[in-house]
Amino acid sequence: MSPLRLSTILMSATLATAMLSSAAVSAQNVTPANRNTVVLQGELQMLENRLRRQQYQQQQQQFRAQDRVVVPQRPDVPQMAPTCQLRRSGSRFISVCR
């Protein structure tokens, strides 16, 4: 397992635990006793946002890699050949294409 994947899993587990414990604290007012808890909540929210950004970026990188692998072929479109005729005009020949 890659180190990035392992850190993502550990961070997800930590955030899930913190979110469960923070639900009870979020309804309380900030007092000196629970100030640290509220600060930790803010830090956990920042970590969760960072994790979501990293996951989004990884997903976009995977999509870009898939797009690079599948190179679309140019379609073979039949083209009409011009119909050119040489016509004599006096002592010269003129090419008339339609």
From TrEMBL:
Keywords: Signal
Protein name as it appears in the record: Secreted protein
N-terminal signal peptide: 1-27
